[in-house]
Amino acid sequence: MEDKKRNILFSEEQINTRIKELGKTIAEDYKGKKLYILSLLRGSFIYAADLARAIDLDAKIGFMTTSSYGHSETSSGSVKVVNDVSDNIEGWDVLIVDDIVDTGITMDFVYNYIKDLNPASVKTCVLLDKPSRRKVDIQPDYCCFEIEDVFVVGYGLNYGDYYRNVPYVFNWE
Question: Of 61, 60, 80, 62, nearest to 70 (Cα)?
Answer without folding.
Answer: 80
